[in-house]
Amino acid sequence: VMAALRSLGPLLCLWALRLPTGPGAAARPLDIASYRERVRAMFYHAYEHYLESAFPYDELRPLTCDGQDTWGSFSLTLIDALDTLLILGNVSEFQRVVNVLQEGVDFDIDVNASVFETNIRGEVGFSVVFMQDYLFVRVCAVHRVNTPVIQKYDVSAFQTPTGMPYGTVNLLHGVNPGETPVTCTAGIGTFIVEFATLSHLTGDPVFEDVARKALKALWKNRSDIGLVGNHIDVITAKWVAQDAGIGAGVDSYFEYLVKGAILLQDKELMSMFLEYNKAIKNYTKFDDWYLWVQMYKGTVSMPVFQSLEAYWPGLQSLIGDVDNAMRTFLNYYTVWKQFGGLPEFYNIPQGYTVDKREGYPLRPELIESAMYLYRATRDPTLLELGRDAVESIEKISKVDCGFATIKDLRDHRLDNRMESFFLAETVKYLYLLFDPDNFIHNDGSVFDVVMTPYGECVLNAGGYVFNTEAHPIDPAALHCCRKQKEEQWEVEDLMREFYSLKKKTNKKFTFKRASDQGEGESAKDPEDSSSEKGGEKRNSRKNLHSLLSCPSQSFTSKLAVLGQVFLDNT
Amino acid sequence: SCSRAKDVTMPAKLPVNFFSTRSPVIDLFRGQLDYADHLRQDSEIVLYFFYAPWCGQSIAAREEIERVASRLSDQVLFVAVNCWWNQGKCRKQKHFFYFPVIHLYHRSFGPIEYKGPMSAVYIEKFVRRVMTPLLYISSRSKLLDFLSNYEPGVLGYFEFNASPQPPGYLTFFRSALHSLKKDYLGTIRFGVITDKHVAEEISLVHSGSVYLHRHVNTSLIYPNDIMNYTAENICKWALENREMLVRWLRPHGGKSLLLNNELKKGPALLIFIPYNPLAEIHPLLDEITKVALEYHNCNKSQAAEADLQHLGDTDSPAFDSSVPDAHMKLPETISIAKYPCCNTVVLPQWHSISRTHNVCELCINQTLGIKPNKVHVPHCNFLEIEAALDSFYLQEHTFFQVVSSTIECSNLLSFYSPFSYYTACCRTVNRHFLSFISSEKTIFQTPKVAFSSHGKKDNTQHSIPHIEDRNCFIPDHISGTNITGLSCRTNKTLNVYLLDSNLFWIYAERLGASRSTHLKEFATIVDLKEEVHYVLDQNQSLVGSTLEDFIKNFSVVYSPLKRHLVDDPSVRFHEQHVITEVTTSTFHHTVFLSEKNVLLIYYAQWCGFCASLNHIFIQLARLLPPDNFIVARIDITRNDLPWEFMTDHLPTILFFPHRRKEQSVKFPEDFSVNLPNLLKFILHHSSLSSSEPCTKECLHKETVLQQGHISHLEREIQKLRSEINALHQAHDQLEAQLSEARREEHRLQQQKHTLEKQHKSLQLHSKQLQATYNRKNQELLEMAEKLQQLADASENLLKENAILRILVASREEKLQSKDETKESLQSEQTLSEDNDISGSTATAPLEDKRIDNTNTVETEHSSGNRTE
């Protein structure tokens, strides 16, 4: 928390220096400071009304000013909004809520919870805590206490012949007898980030193992043309819904392949994603839109754009495909301009909403992409999307008790819901878009050092990975928790050698040899130690080992702003 | 109530005013389109602003519209219509994909959609164009003014003699309006000439003829006989044939390939200037267009000359004085116009040493064709020109050897159109342009035209490419010469573009324009194919001469221009900088000039794979001795580097060993990036291992190293200390927890004791209770016994009573019998009876009492039984 405060302080000063000083005739650039404050006001309007009228229910019902349980009585909105408080810089309220929650929330209750939703939303406790160094030491320890509970419900869902989990689980009794074995793809493939984190924290590898097993099962069951469908039977591994796309039912599976690869420096996950990416480009991409196709034949089954698909450009920007990301983003932005929100389904050829799918529950995905892309391009168009989002949400969905889901984008009728992701994600990403100096955007120029009984750790050095419900995880904290004694000792040995180099001419550790030990799979000829030879080898293997990297941006990226896109030279 | 609340929905809020009520804009916020149409009937010019109240762009444009409205409200009707409100007419009738939409009407003509920038000045300019789509050219000076403008111009000549409107005028007028529909930037200007003499200046004789002015290529006259004379056709014709020497680039903000398409054409000179469309004069713009005109002026046509002259003169206030001069040159424009369709071709060099250049002017010559009577209404189209060009290329070798100071012409038959001939007039251009310009001028003014038969000099190479000399040198002093016609002499022809820096300065910034300058002027040459761009030094002011030099420097073979490397000026230096942030400008200094080993990380903030490694590099930097090592990084998306240091993937880690900086090594990509691997990599390549004879320097180094080691150890000790501290803390914490636990235990024990005590006392109590119970029971039993006794007694008494009754009864019987028999004894007996009665009355209540008694005893007895 201190880190958060520390980084917020200088940012505000820097901000004042950056204020635009345009002449009169010029197009006035967006006043992002004022929009940032409007987003903050939005947050408190919703948050305070939730506390007042809905707590301890899961969600606020903004039209009737009361609460309801949706995912199972965890005061979900509050849990979800927790780290948004931190990002807004409200440390005292954050602390207060943490204390309330530590007493109150009990997952050991007799309700049926979606494994998937509970995982991504409920496990906020530790991901939040990651961001604060002073709580950190407690995390590694404290969580061991809680795990039996989590273990009980989470892992039981994974006990199927395929290793793919059931969709729903009872928090007290495990999987209900007679539970349907049909689970959506995302419900199977969206665990690795949280479960690997859990495993690192608790030292119990079972979580990461089951998550990986589920991912591999999906990978094994992809079609011949490399696509996955929408729903699968976890007992028989038969695809029940064979629509392949990037949206609902699949979205966070792809998201977690990438984010897992980044968080865990995992080449296997990344290579899976890149293969999927190839198939997706080949079969579903048309004119920078992504359609739905039959997973075996690749024929178009639904020419629609789904609101949930709007996360894709953000994901692309994380792996460096900024050009394509921007082009797709601009397509999606036109839909927003048409309706003031993104309908759940948008028929691309007709240019209109799809029957029964006209709602906009204030989803965050497009704003999320805008935030990632703004990091990469600083394109003012992305701020304009943010501006449009603030104006739309305030004008259309703000009511006395909060912000209401838009039931129908054609006439802007409102529904009596405010989903928890509004405070957890939509507002958070909007704020981060308008606050480029937020500590979340830390590029590694500031960091904290903590002494743990296990050694020294660097924390809060940026590179936070957001889980699919926008809860940030600090990769440094993860690394710190899993760091083995061996690495520590190895580093100490190396440092000792460092200073004694002068005397010993025969080195005890050579880079090649030592690294062979570390990386069995990429073993190299030990004699091949001359750098020139190594260079040749590198070139021949280029495609193999640049998996965990981004391509550097092309020359045209300098000019690819304000809607300008460039075609490849090839 | 729960299920009912679930179905609660709320219709959208009712629309409210979008513009303030005081605004000059009429706000139909309920979408009353019918009323909007009604309003239009009363007004000549109407601007409709269709908005959606939730739309950010509409909100942003609102202010701009209000500003325009406040300036033009007396001439233009401004109507804003909420086209979102789903019960309004507008929403029901129109389907917009974006907001706001601006439509303009000129009387019944419309809608003309405005698609330009949402900036008040641009909107106002456009509205003014709609108000007066035609410029009235009343005099020669106005004509010159019109023709000298860099933007293409279309002129119509109409005689307003008898009828108020000559035939075709209305069509021409509509075509001017129509062009605004297609060409929302309004680059083509439309003018109308009513004076016969003015019209003659551009060889327009017939009323109704339409003329498209071009600076470099020949101006055109609308071909009435081929195309129908309609507004659409005129507009299309002008758009297709206009000449764009300089083009404004105005990206509209949506997804677009504008820059892609323009920059793919070849190297581009992008000039950023602040532009106010409403300003009367644009001196800087005039200067730039003058340079562009010169640059494209290959054949030195007199027309261009005249225009240039005039362009130069517009600056001077004494405008009229230059008119006679211009007047002299105008006829020559006409004389060249006798070949109406011409195209300049630059021929490849037949001899590489030659310092000459053949330039041919290829003209369709229809005087030799079958339509000789239509000489004066020339028409030409691109098909013909292209056909002519094709056949010319087949014949061109005949022109290679022409080395002549005269213009030599050939008549050739077009392959594709047997009825038309074309004439190719070629001349030789000396590469010593300096001398050429000065000396050849006279030749042009009096061209000696000599026709030669083609095909007689057929002895040259055939395989010479049309794109010019690669191996041929251009004299050094070209940089000191005029740039006239340079576009034809160079193989790196530039397209010139203008951008309004009020709107598009961001492109300039991203190409390296300094953020600190107040003057938003910037010129850069972007070569997309070569992935380079050059920048005109911003310290030089942007004027014609610097621009000319810039172009010339770009054009010469050994260009002195250096690829511009964009630098990130916003790098912040933090106190905590264990990692040195390198930029373009500090790269060389930090990496090559420092006396240390340098580990350089290429990264980008947006790349997920880089950001998640931050903590590893920070740890590494904290471990390595700062005296010998620098851990540095460079954000490669914001800092360009020389080609040899560019990388195609991020993150890339390079190690530059001390003293062997040129032998940099790359961290192999197939090793995972972690602390031990990085240390091993550095150890492996570090220059410290070199075994050199130990000199003084070496000793010195040794001490430095040892000192480094010492400081490292010291740091290590510090670390260990803090580790100990941490352990202590943990220990304290544990101890605290332990003591807490002990206290807890103690408390529990105490609790146990008290509980036990309580237990005992309770047991005691229960014993006591048992005893009392027993006692009570005993008492009860006793009581029961007593009662039993009582009951027995009462039973006895009852029996006695019964016996007594029987006795009494028997006695009474006896007495009755005695009554009958012994009446004598009655008095005596009455006495005794009285006694008896008194006795019986005395016993009766007693008996009652007894009965009562037994009853109560019985009930008590039964209750006693129950308790037992």
Automatic annotation (TrEMBL), chain A:
Enzyme Commission number(s) of this protein: 3.2.1.-
Subcellular location: Endoplasmic reticulum
Top EC class, one word: hydrolase
Active site: 117 (proton donor), 251, 344 (proton donor), 365
Protein family according to the UniProt entry: Belongs to the glycosyl hydrolase 47 family.
Region of interest (Disordered), residue spans: 512-543
Record keywords, A-Z: Calcium, Endoplasmic reticulum, Glycoprotein, Glycosidase, Hydrolase, Metal-binding, Signal, Unfolded protein response
Gene Ontology CC terms: endoplasmic reticulum quality control compartment; membrane
Major localization class: endoplasmic reticulum
Signal sequence bounds: 1-26
Highest taxon in the source lineage: Eukaryota
Residue spans of biased composition, Basic and acidic residues class: 513-538
GO molecular function: calcium ion binding; mannosyl-oligosaccharide 1,2-alpha-mannosidase activity
Natural source organism: Crotophaga sulcirostris (Groove-billed ani)
GO biological process terms on file: carbohydrate metabolic process; endoplasmic reticulum mannose trimming; positive regulation of retrograde protein transport, ER to cytosol; response to unfolded protein
Record-given protein name: alpha-1,2-Mannosidase
Ranges that cross the membrane: none
Record-listed Ca(2+) binding positions: 468
Cofactor or coenzyme needed: Ca(2+)
Gene from which the chain derives: Edem2
Functional description taken from the UniProt entry: Involved in the endoplasmic reticulum-associated degradation (ERAD) pathway that targets misfolded glycoproteins for degradation in an N-glycan-dependent manner. May initiate ERAD by promoting the first mannose trimming step of ERAD substrates, from Man9GlcNAc2 to Man8GlcNAc2. Seems to recognize and bind to exposed hydrophobic regions in target proteins.
Alphabetical list of InterPro entries matching this protein: 6hp_glycosidase-like_sf (IPR012341), EDEM1/2/3 (IPR044674), Glyco_hydro_47 (IPR001382), Seven-hairpin_glycosidases (IPR036026)
Automatic annotation (TrEMBL), chain B:
PROSITE patterns for the chain: THIOREDOXIN_2 (PS51352)
The encoding gene: Txndc11
Ranges of Basic and acidic residues composition bias in the record: 746-759, 813-825, 846-868
Superkingdom of the organism of origin: Eukaryota
Coiled coil: none
Region spans: Disordered: 746-765, 813-868
Name of this protein: TXD11 protein
Domain Thioredoxin intervals: 10-132, 513-687
